[in-house]
């Protein structure tokens, strides 16, 4: 079972990556806990506090996606 998630997103530099990550973690946690009530009793937290971010340096998204799927 995978223990992490890969996302390719475009973020406004003024927004801040941490805000996007926190929003994704918060919303996905709420949705999953609503759909699967047993998660609340089994896991005190769904996500860790940490995350990793890397840039693709202006490479077009379709190129990054095709390389990832090799």
TrEMBL record:
Source organism superkingdom: Bacteria
Entry-linked SUPFAM superfamilies: Transposase IS200-like
InterPro entries, A to Z: Transposase_17 (IPR002686), Transposase_17_sf (IPR036515)
Single GO MF annotation: transposase activity
Domain Transposase IS200-like, first and last residues per copy: 1-65
One Pfam family it belongs to: Y1_Tnp
GO biological process: DNA transposition
Coiled-coil stretches: none
NCBIfam families cross-referenced by the UniProt entry: transpos_IS200
Database matches in PANTHER family: TRANSPOSASE FOR INSERTION SEQUENCE ELEMENT IS200 (PTHR33360)
Name of protein: REP element-mobilizing transposase RayT
Organism whose genome encodes this protein: Nonomuraea muscovyensis
